[in-house]
Amino acid sequence: xxxxxxxxxxxxxxxxxxxxRGVDLAVEAGGIATIVGANGAGKTTIMRALSGxxxxxxxAILFEGEPIEALPPHEIVARGLVMVPEGRRLFPSLSVLExxxxxxxxxxxxxxxxENMQRMFELFPxxxxxxxxxxxxxxxxxQQMVAIARALMSMxxxxxxxxxxxxxxxVIVATLFEIVKGINAAGTTVVLVEQNVKHALAISAQAWVxxxxxxxxxxxxxxxxxDDKTRRAYLGM
Length: 237
Ligand code: ATP
Known about the structure:
Layout (H helix, E strand, L loop, with lengths): L2 E12 L2 E12 L3 E5 L6 H8 L7 E6 L2 E2 L5 H7 L1 E4 L11 H7 L4 H4 L2 H11 L1 H5 L10 H13 L5 E5 L7 H16 L3 E6 L2 H6 L3 E6 L2 E6 L1 H6 L1 H7 L3
Parallel strand pairs: 3-8, 3-9, 6-7, 7-8
Antiparallel strand pairs: 1-2, 1-4, 4-5, 9-10
Helix pairs in contact: 3-7
Bound molecules: adenosine-5'-triphosphate.
Adenosine-5'-triphosphate binds next to helix 1.
């Protein structure tokens, strides 16, 4: 297996305080990879470093074998590594359609905007029904779908999702994880950060447990889920 995304010795933090220390990860192409960990463990900080919005203090980030840790966020998106941030960050006063169009601003996907929009409405029929509605008036689950669809409009090779299930009702969470599986099955590598450990690990070929900014455990998601010691010690189950 080849790693599409590799993190080597990553340290990152805020105001001179390291939050993440010495993190090594190799995400294999074509699968779903998940980072789990308690509140404040540093999961979002890793995602922010990967997407270029936070400069690492130390370490290398390789995407398709090339260093990206010094690139600005839009160049990282252009290469095909795209993050859906926690909290969705939609434009609340713009319509669903307008939010999706904004996902396709990069030159390489602008020409395929209509075709991709059609794909999004097939993947998310609910959004097709609500294409003219202002994003700020959608339910939490619908907003998460817009955020994911907007990211997919930029045709990512690797889609990173930061806590996509946060604040959603259980029934919507199940749908969301089905959608994530579908996106992966259609060929996009997925990197997930989740507190919904059970759901996330169940669908992940690769998984890591992050504790106080360091990786303390790694393996396949289902293996971590069934290991008693790790369930008790790290997963609070
Ligand atoms: P959660 O699941 O609660 O989102 P997390 O694992 O994603 O947690 P991070 O958001 O990476 O954790 O935060 C890790 C630590 O970094 C926390 O102690 C947090 O307070 C701190 N931190 C995060 N963002 C900033 C910031 N902009 N400035 C200063 N400290 C920050």
